């Protein structure tokens, strides 16, 4: 038996800012709860390739480097996607890159690190 990733949960301080960023970044639909949280749904039915995102209101700011993070893949030009994400509110961050990586490290508006891969992972 094995498990698959179904959902990625992010603790957020400002739910509205993070809903706006992540729904625009991923093209996901928003289902906002009345409990200070929101679920972001892929445009199609969830599958192993498209987990849901749960934005969980925490009321506190992020502290330290993420122990887990998202790796995103662009449909077309990865650097164009990086520019689009920066335009949405992401920023470049240095987590010790050497400059030879095949990905770009960004942080969302609350500082949660994520990567845009130059190409999809392969075996």
Give a summary of the structure in a few sentences:
With 123 residues, the chain is of the alpha/beta class. The protein has two helices and eight strands; from the N terminus they run βαββββαβββ. The strands form two sheets. The protein has a four-stranded mixed β-sheet, covered by helices on one side. Strands 5-8-7-6 form a four-stranded mixed β-sheet, with helices on one face.
Written overview of the protein:
With 123 residues, the protein is an alpha/beta fold. 19% of the residues lie in helices and 30% in strands. It has one domain: Roll (2,3-Dihydroxybiphenyl 1,2-Dioxygenase, domain 1), CATH 3.10.180. The chain contains 2 helices and 8 strands; from the N terminus they run E-H-E-E-E-E-H-E-E-E. Strands 1-4-3-2 form a 4-stranded mixed beta sheet, covered by helices on one side. Strands 5-8-7-6 form a 4-stranded mixed beta sheet, covered by helices on one side. The two termini are 21 Å apart.
């Amino acid at each position: 038996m094995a498990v698959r990733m179904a959902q990625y949960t992010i603790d957020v301080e400002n739910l509205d800012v993070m809903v706006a960023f992540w729904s625009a970044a991923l093209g996901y639909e928003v289902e906002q709860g009345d409990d200070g949280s929101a679920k972001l749904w892929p445009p199609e039915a969830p599958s192993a390739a498209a987990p849901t995102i749960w934005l969980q209101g925490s009321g506190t700011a992020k502290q330290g480097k993420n122990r887990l993070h998202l790796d995103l893949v662009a449909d077309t030009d990865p650097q164009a996607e990086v520019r689009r994400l920066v335009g949405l509110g992401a920023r470049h961050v240095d987590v010790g890159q050497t400059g030879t990586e095949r990905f770009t490290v960004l942080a969302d508006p609350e500082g949660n690190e994520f990567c845009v891969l130059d190409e999809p992972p392969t075996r």
